[in-house]
Amino acid sequence: MVTFDRLQQNIMDVIAEEQIKLGYRSEVIHLYYPLKSLNRLLAVDCGIAAMHQVLDNLKKAVRDKWGELEVSNEGERFCLTFAPQCAEYVHAHMAENEFLTRFIAAISRHDCAIEDIRNVFLDFSEEVTLEKIKGQDFDYLIYFTDGKPNDYRYCITFEGCHVIYHRFTREDFGDLYLEFAAK
Question: A Pfam family this protein belongs to (predicted)?
Answer without folding.
Answer: DUF3877
